[in-house]
Amino acid sequence: MTVPMQAEALDISFKLVPAIIVFLMMASFLVIGYVFKVADTEGMWVAGRGIGNIENGMAIGANWMSAASYLGLAGLVALSGFYGLAFIVGWTTGYFILLIFLAAQMRRFGKYTAPDFVGDRFNSPTARALAAFTTLLIAYVYSVGQARGMGLVGQYVFGLDIIPMIIVMMTITVGYLALSGMLGATKNMAVQYTILIVAFLAGVYVVGFSQGYSTILPQVEYGALIADLGREFSAPFVNQPFYLWIATAFSLIVGTCGLPHVLVRFYTVRSERVARWSCVWGLFFILLLYWASPAMAAFGVDLFEATTGASAYAAEGGMSGAEGDVIVVLAAQFANLPTWFVGLVAAGAMAAAIATTAGLFITASSAVAHDIYTELINPEATQRQQVLIGRATIIGMGALVTVTAFNPPALIGELVAYAFSLAGVVLFPMFFLGLWWENTNRQGALAGMVLGLLIWITSIINSVLPNYIGALGAATGESGALVPIYSQYVPPIGAALIGTPVVFIVTIAVSLATPEPPLETKKMVRQCHSPEPMGQQETAADVVGDSTSGGTPADD
Known about the structure:
Blueprint: H1 16-35, H2 41-46, H3 53-64, H4 67-80, H5 85-109, H6 114-121, H7 125-158, H8 162-210, H9 218-221, H10 226-229, H11 231-234, H12 242-256, H13 260-263, H14 272-290, H15 293-308, H16 321-325, H17 327-334, H18 339-377, H19 383-405, H20 412-426, H21 428-436, H22 442-463, H23 470-476, H24 484-489, H25 496-513, H26 519-527, H27 540-548
InterPro entries: Na/Glc_symporter_sf, Na/solute_symporter, Sodium:Solute_Symporter
Family: Belongs to the sodium:solute symporter (SSF) (TC 2.A.21) family.
Protein name: Cation acetate symporter
């Protein structure tokens, strides 16, 4: 087994007070999970559809601000300068599309999962299976980065090697998720958001003030460092071409709108109005961290160079990828802040990673238990069987993610971006067309999803797998890709720039060339845009079913 890259500059030793902080935090998650444990599918998958807008907004924020945001985003900015800003642009802009085009409409459609929407909207078990497979793939790729972040932070707090720390932290996470389901996960996410945002902002303000970088607004004042940090921050596109910046930002925008663990948050609320407002609150809660992340990256780079005496970007003695992934913790450490305070910053990173892992694992378990097992294999499955299958999926996914995180193929932020690219290419076109063009049919959806999967998988095989498979690596030469021109225009991190428009075109073309979907399906789409209010547990299919048995559809 390959030993993962270590963050050499990180003070890896047992620290009593930070250890107590992390222990109490993890124990509280287990307690909350137990108190809100569930035994039925309604609580397991959609938290009983009773979550309010602020609580759901906090859950969206915690769900969203993973180790990739808390740790990886600052690391990407620190290591790649201007290119790293593509992640901030992409990961925030997508929420405006969600707010305007998807949040309320998804809630009115009113199913349990993202594959549930695809299967019922396009009247296709095959489309459901493809969506479930994509959901599992997204959860797996995304979660590897979270497990990696947990291990790095655990190293700092407990002084152990990264591998046992990944195992311990993932075991605790899987334990409370298997017990609590979506209801307990949502309650925990609100707590986790509070922990992570307090820890991150405290870190930014204290590091900035104590080192003389800033006074009252480090989010703006860090700009004074740009001249000192040189071309990495001041000259656009030095490290990466302009095309890759655009491709990355675009993929993250549309990927945001295709992530199953984000969209399922709108199934957990009371109404479509709450869905819209929870999206607004979620964007506000995300803003608090994203506005400050570049400042922490700048502080961390400057402190790294002052402490080590070497340029952060030097070939030898410079900042490694592992150190970039923990730049938030390193900045607090290099500022000579009290150990307990650095431990608090580290605990926030742990909370961020666990919150996102929770959302991902719940969507993965629902995809297997509900969309594959119940809908495709055993339609007579009891609620107890579904919950058991869901819990078994969480455990199995946890084991697979844990092993992969020992030696991940990329930085935390890059790993997460691969998952966004997949969601943007395969699922976003289905969600958007499925809700906004009633003539999108089964044949079009199947053609688009298969093509999207092929585009993404070939980009991974072309550019990522050669790093792991010796024979492929030998065939790439210095380019690092099997087909360099394909890697240039369809990179794994930005495959959606070309892939998503192509999938849209193919889905529309095939839908126009084949029979229209049934009238009942069209009525469900219309109901998603009706101004008429719906009941808390009511779905578009319920309304259409009532109308066909004697009533009048809201906007037929």
